[in-house]
């Protein structure tokens, strides 16, 4: 497969690059969002590597190197071409209300596959001839006896189904912590302790994460929380990443997905074994104040939150914020009761995060029909001095 472009596409691409949108580079990690709704996270791309899309299609990644992020790309049978775009996928425009058929009614339609005059063999023959997906869809519309009697909305649904089947286009994204969280939650949520994007946002907000803070993070979410903290603070601040002695350095994947300079990340993020903290030997400095942090974030289903909190809480400054995430309520209730009994925190609250996605289209705005029930629980508060 080869990259093709027209003389009309070149100026548009140059305009996109000049506007400040970054280009895809060799070694980058990219997130590919397909028109089918699925996502692919490709790490450290190389020119000789192919991107597998679906069961049969592949796309040479060398064609993406040097192209802009956030553009749409379409795969044809014989060639791959850039579809310039900002944030709108290629789609059919809705007709004006005046053009809608008054007598259109989907109640009359019978789903018996007899309304399509184009046979499956003819469709396969068109594919063998290298006919583009858009042309096949046009022929399907021409051969459909029921298309013209459908309502506008029914026609749009019909087109959407056919595009998903006969067209393959995708958007390349420079992954953020939000994108990485969304990807793993849809693919393999147990790897990030079933943390959804709203749960991650709550954890950062309730933990008072912003630049020039010193943050201690203990997580078993593949480094997702650390990556999100780094993204929010930038280069201004310090992150102390705590991990069990035998797992130090194993849950750091998400930090490398952000396409940040490794030296820059190492200057902000510092790894500390959990055993070193428990023994009270966090660093070689004698000044205790240098060991204290402004924020404490804990996100784990693998270890007991109360055990982690008990050992890390002494390193949190007075008036410092803490936030603990778990997909289960009971372990956080135990932490809540201990903090209340010790009177070592104020504004202690246990919240359940919940979010509902909406489809926003002209005259078709409504909540999505299916959604995940919850995104876990967050316990937060502010540390105070015990009398």
Automatic annotation (TrEMBL):
Q: Record's Gene3D superfamilies?
A: Vaccinia Virus protein VP39
Against InterPro entries, the record matches this protein to: EF_Hand_1_Ca_BS, SAM-dependent_MTases_sf, TRM6
Pfam families noted in UniProt: Gcd10p
Q: Which GO terms describe its biological process?
A: tRNA methylation
Where, if anywhere, are coiled coils annotated? none
Q: Which family does it belong to?
A: Belongs to the TRM6/GCD10 family.
Tell me the protein's name: tRNA (adenine(58)-N(1))-methyltransferase non-catalytic subunit TRM6
Q: Which organism is it from?
A: Naegleria gruberi (Amoeba)
Q: What is the lineage of its organism?
A: Eukaryota, Discoba, Heterolobosea, Tetramitia, Eutetramitia
């Amino acid at each position: 497969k080869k990259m093709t472009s027209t003389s009309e596409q070149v100026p548009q691409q140059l305009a996109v690059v000049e506007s400040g949108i970054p280009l895809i580079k060799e070694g980058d990690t990219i997130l590919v969002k397909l028109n089918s709704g699925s996502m692919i996270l490709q790490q450290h791309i190389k020119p000789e590597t192919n991107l597998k899309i679906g069961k049969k299609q592949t796309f040479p990644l060398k064609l993406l190197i040097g192209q802009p992020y956030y553009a749409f790309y379409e795969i044809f049978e014989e060639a791959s071409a850039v579809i310039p775009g900002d944030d709108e996928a290629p789609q059919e425009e809705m007709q004006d209300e005046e053009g809608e058929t008054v007598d259109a009614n989907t109640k009359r339609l019978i789903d018996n596959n007899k309304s399509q005059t184009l046979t499956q063999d003819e469709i396969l023959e068109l594919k063998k001839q290298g006919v583009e997906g858009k042309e096949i869809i046009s022929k399907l519309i021409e051969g459909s006896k029921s298309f013209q009697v459908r309502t506008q909305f029914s026609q749009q649904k019909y087109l959407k189904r056919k595009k998903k089947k006969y067209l393959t286009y995708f958007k390349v994204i420079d992954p953020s912590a939000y994108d990485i969280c969304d990807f793993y939650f849809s693919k393999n949520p147990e790897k990030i302790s079933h943390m959804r994007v709203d749960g991650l946002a709550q954890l950062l907000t309730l933990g008072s994460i912003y630049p020039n803070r010193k943050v201690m993070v203990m997580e078993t979410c593949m480094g997702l929380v650390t990556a999100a903290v780094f993204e929010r603070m930038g280069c201004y601040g310090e992150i102390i990443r705590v991990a069990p002695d035998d797992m130090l350095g194993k849950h750091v994947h998400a930090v490398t997905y952000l396409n940040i300079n490794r030296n820059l990340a190492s200057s902000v993020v510092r790894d500390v074994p959990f055993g070193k903290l428990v023994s009270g030997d966090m660093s070689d400095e004698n000044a205790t104040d240098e060991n204290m942090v402004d924020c404490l974030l804990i996100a784990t289903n693998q270890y007991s939150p109360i055990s982690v909190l008990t050992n890390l809480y002494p390193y949190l400054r007075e008036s410092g914020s803490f936030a603990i995430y778990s997909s289960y309520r009971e372990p956080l209730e135990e932490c809540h009761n201990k903090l209340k009994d010790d009177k070592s925190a104020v504004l202690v609250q246990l919240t359940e995060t919940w979010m509902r996605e909406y489809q926003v289209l002209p005259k078709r705005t409504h909540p999505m029909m299916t959604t995940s029930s919850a995104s876990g629980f967050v316990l937060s508060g502010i540390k105070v001095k015990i009398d």
